[in-house]
Design brief:
The longest helix has 22 residues, at 18-39. The N and C termini lie far apart (62 Å). This protein has a three-stranded antiparallel β-sheet. Helix 10 crosses helix 12. By secondary structure, the protein is mostly helical. The protein has helices at residues 2-12, 18-39, 48-60, 65-84, 111-118, 128-143, 147-152, 181-196, 217-228, 239-252, 257-264, 269-290; strands at residues 158-159, 164-168, 174-178.
């Protein structure tokens, strides 16, 4: 009951996405099951030692520090909510510290490799599925939008006059992202081709399956993975890699960090600053190769 009311609060007050809500619910249900099984306690009767015991159990199960940190963050939000609702007087999370997570630099694909892929006249054909796949890649790399944002795009979100798209981001926040001329023409051509398919199940969604139904996350993952395999040997080949590639390309070309923040739809600058580490590493690499004393 408490978890359900908390999730309702996150959904309507915080406007969290279904994906985020599911992550919160999974973490909280796991913790609830643990304290019931090992301590016969409820969510409102536990104290800090039980939370620490939960963390130790996760570590024993070889759960990564990053995943444990996420679960602790879920519990912090949950107990802060209970305290705010006067269900608890003392927050058991106040003395809890999440395990340190080593900073990981964003994984990206070099700009020249993506240009080689997207400019290829042999990889992409003129049929609908191939055109659709290319638009998926072009939009992810050309605008830096998230996977969930791509799936929510509608044909009407494209403003040809202004050369922009309207993106519905996290917590239902809208932002306007520019489209370069080539990408705008590609998108317009794709929309026209989609209309010519005469799909029986018309949908306003921009990206659709080969039968005209709404696209889904796994489909986009498969598309991105298949084409990135042609140009990259790195293990990670997800849609988010193209978002990282977008941000890194802008930063390397001198774009203002605050402008990149707005384009990515980040709530704060801290999330955007991680890309500066990639830029510094690139400068170090250039220095080592070019300086006679390096």
């Amino acid at each position: 009951m408490l978890i359900s009311s908390f999730l309702t609060y996150l959904q309507h007050e915080k406007r969290y996405s279904p994906h985020t809500l599911l992550a919160y619910e999974t973490d909280l249900r796991q913790f609830e099951h643990y304290i019931q099984l090992h301590f016969e306690l409820t969510l409102v009767t536990i104290k800090a030692p039980q939370v620490r015991s939960f963390m130790v159990a996760l570590m024993d199960d070889k759960i990564s520090a990053n995943a444990i940190g996420r679960k602790i963050s879920s519990l912090r939000s949950f107990y802060k909510y209970l305290q705010r609702e006067s269900i608890l007087n003392i927050n058991p999370m106040l003395l809890i510290r999440a395990p340190k997570v080593p900073k990981r630099l964003p994984v990206f694909v070099e700009e020249h490799k993506l240009d080689q892929l997207l400019d290829s006249e042999t990889i992409f054909t003129t049929d609908f599925s191939s055109k659709r796949d290319k638009i998926v890649l072009e939009l992810l790399f050309g605008t830096g939008i998230r996977l969930a944002e791509l799936l929510l795009l509608k044909d009407t979100d494209i403003n040809a006059y202004e050369s922009t798209i309207k993106v519905l981001g996290k917590r239902s926040k809208e932002r306007i992202v520019p489209l370069h001329t080539t990408l705008l023409k590609e998108v317009e051509g794709y929309i026209s081709l989609k209309f010519d398919q005469n799909f029986n199940n018309k949908t306003p969604t921009l990206i659709v399956t080969n039968t005209g139904t709404v696209a889904y996350p796994k489909m986009i993952y498969r598309i991105v993975h298949r084409y990135l395999t042609l140009i990259s040997t790195q293990d990670k080949k997800s849609p988010h890699v193209l978002r990282h590639s977008f941000a890194s390309s802008l930063l390397n070309r001198g774009a203002d960090l605050n402008a990149i923040k707005e384009l990515l739809g980040h709530a704060g600058l801290a999330a955007t600053q991680i890309y500066t580490h990639n830029s510094v590493e690139r400068l170090k690499s250039i220095y080592k190769q070019a300086h006679p004393k390096a």
